[in-house]
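Internal QA ticket QA-208
Title: Verify multi-chain structure generation after dependency bump
Assignee: T.L.

Test input:
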Amino acid sequence: MSAAKTAITPTRHEDFPEWYQQVIKAADLAENSETRGCMVIKPWGYGIWELIQKQLDVRFKETGHQNAYFPLLIPLSYLEKEAEHAEGFATECAVVTHHRLEAVKDPVTGKTKMIPSGELAEPYVIRPTSETIIGAAFARWVQSYRDLPLLINQWANVMRWEMRPRLFLRTAEFLWQEGHTAHENKEEAIVETEMIHRLYEAFARDHLAIPVVPGEKTENERFPGADMTLTIEAMVQDKKAIQAGTSHYLGQNFSKAQNISFTSREGEKEFAHTTSWGVSTRLIGTLIMAHSDDDGLVLPPRVATQQVVIIPVTPKDDSKEAVLAACDALAEKLRKKTSYHGDAIRVHVDKRDVSGKKWEWVKKGAPIRVEIGPRDIESRKVCVQRRDRGANEKDFMDKEEFLQTVPNLLQDIHDTLLARAQEFRDANITACTSLEEFHSHWANDNPGWLATPWAGSPEEEDELSKKHKITIRCMPIKDAGLPKDLLSAATGACFLTGKQSSPVAIWGRSY
Amino acid sequence: MSAAKTAITPTRHEDFPEWYQQVIKAADLAENSETRGCMVIKPWGYGIWELIQKQLDVRFKETGHQNAYFPLLIPLSYLEKEAEHAEGFATECAVVTHHRLEAVKDPVTGKTKMIPSGELAEPYVIRPTSETIIGAAFARWVQSYRDLPLLINQWANVMRWEMRPRLFLRTAEFLWQEGHTAHENKEEAIVETEMIHRLYEAFARDHLAIPVVPGEKTENERFPGADMTLTIEAMVQDKKAIQAGTSHYLGQNFSKAQNISFTSREGEKEFAHTTSWGVSTRLIGTLIMAHSDDDGLVLPPRVATQQVVIIPVTPKDDSKEAVLAACDALAEKLRKKTSYHGDAIRVHVDKRDVSGKKWEWVKKGAPIRVEIGPRDIESRKVCVQRRDRGANEKDFMDKEEFLQTVPNLLQDIHDTLLARAQEFRDANITACTSLEEFHSHWANDNPGWLATPWAGSPEEEDELSKKHKITIRCMPIKDAGLPKDLLSAATGACFLTGKQSSPVAIWGRSY
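Actual output:
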């Protein structure tokens, strides 16, 4: 059987990691830079991030959060305050030790070279996350229970010196938002942590068409310094997991280390209960791996910089002007329409005089492509192609009909991507209640996830994880949206310890 | 004569720099952090930046630019490539030399301490500006004239180790946008540089109500590595100048250093002509110093997070509910109205149960305050106060009339601030054609600017600058908007060299 020619080589099936790199390259999303592990996010990739930012920001503000900005550099002494936290990030911190450069002449070559100069008395760390520096500000701002809750978000770059960087998924520098909140008591802090967790889940589903599994991390997998870490876990097309967003209840660990204290309603001095939560440019890597195909990127409509791309077909010079005018007229009408998600439809007319435009937009993942040629002007038809269908499937539609149905078409593309991803996910999570099956499962190629009843200790979890290069992705929350039959098959006696009525754990390989 | 009590101590007249700090504190805009020279931008201050970002971003996109993102860290070897550029920033670079931390036990105290570890073979510099790292990407992206013009913008944080930091105006880390473009030839690059220069001027005038003077920097004051630097210069209330935004034509200096070359229309290898341009959180410092008064911050309406603040007056419990409902109803109606600048009006109802709310909003600079009390409900009146007028000036308006006039009121506040700033500026620029007058002028307190005919050499400029702690702020462009009589009085023979028909230079002290 000869394979159909695809726009991306290799295919997902042939070599998934290399396919991922090639999709990014073909869609012109990002590239590696000469700064170790750091990427350049190109306009088509950054446009996705801008939309994610804008849409999430609205949700954060609706839920009472305000944006602020805190220093990039953290004094080393701040990081040391919370021991577990410091230890967790110690091996991946970029450290600033000098504050100027000095020109020196190389005695051998005679060339002038710049060397670090002006050593700092106390080095700084480039924020890997900002709990410590934001906590120091909170300690100043919070005096009384009247100052609580304090609900702050920051859009920023952070840096973690990753040993094996991969574009979007794991880069030394990445862009993210980090929410930081302080509350009077544990209950309110937990409500916040869970509210954001569900907000992230809904965002992944409704904006990125990714059916994540919401759950709690085990102690082994928690954020360094947290009492509870909630996560949304996405399954991508090689059946690996991606941790796509986390929400942490930090207890009083940071508030005690940094003295975020307040006078309570009863007049007592108390320490605040804090939370932190974040999503990053990793979401872009996740959506690429979740939806794209062997012809390139497939963008969920809501985060597509251009939702409809109109390509004029101009075989003859004498009809060119009329075709371009028809394309512009259609674009103008489309821009006045509201999409299913309430924003204006984003339309681009690609008038460049180059060949291969159609395939360029296939590879860039534009949700809808429209071609208009000389004959279509008379017939008032347009040729419509959907990115969620085969690259050569066409639908000739009456122009007016197309205008009317575009919002629904976009919605339908979103729904199709979501349903497809959900079907794939559910087909690739297997319930497992026996240790023997558990061990043998991971010998498969692309083994998918296991759902098991689990009551083992952190040490037992660690042993199994190391043996099979897996982790517990999460303990799904009650209303996680997993198939009922899967959950009931995965509940019962722990497959390792035999303990009755154990909760369900999801195991998998991950990025 | 006893002075009226003001909300800010000291007043502008008593101590301008300290007044500035106190305005920032009273409005809760920002504060110093323990990271040397770095500030925390608090929500009320960050909100201004968000609006500046959003509004500028629309203008950049309208003029064909796309956003992208480049690494925070610049390899030292990149910076070295353009010698003048490297030298210009060498004394203020934060340098990353290590990529991990190691825990060591202090032999004396027995305590565990973190020390830098994992020394890098090549250190990195935290970007003070990104010409070099973006240039390296441009060198990869540009191959043919068809790839030009390349029009890129980045929203980012940058770092310059300032010796005398001052909130917003001069901080070690600041937020900005930096545009970077590459063109086929000098003409197109100059058109871009000038277009952005006028865009900045219009933005300062129409969004920030600041009547800047657009002009060209002299060679002494150019950006390191530029062939031409255009600037917008603002005069603030102590008559000093603030460089509020610059636009540089970089010639082929960076393209030659970094090999941004392309095959021209004629098939020849040529080096691109590049530009760069930026504005930063410094704009916030500028607008504070330009408009605020002895009662605190005065916000130009377009960048006010809340344009109308409604304060319920609830002296009695039995009418409280009705007053709050009336406030909410008014807010809802206002939110449906469009302001003079095309956006929805931003309204806040301050329902907090604390005293002193009115003065809080005076100090925070909300353009319009509205009070509604029990009696106003029956009379259908509202008590309206404008921030550009005295804090106790009131206008009782019919509620319907108020609703109708709010857009005009906001426009009028903007126009008033702009006219006031322009009148102040024009009254404080003096034409000067004699060397004697020039020398004596700078002995005055808060001397204001001088406009002179100037044809001196860079060395002569440097000597005068050092002697009086002044600089040439700019050589105003033709259509700079300065008073005609000032310009004609300041044209003629150079006050130093006597050279005839010399162009006008603006001299001043600056931040």
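Spot checks passed. Chain A has three domains: 16-95+127-291, 308-409, 429-508.
Status: verified.
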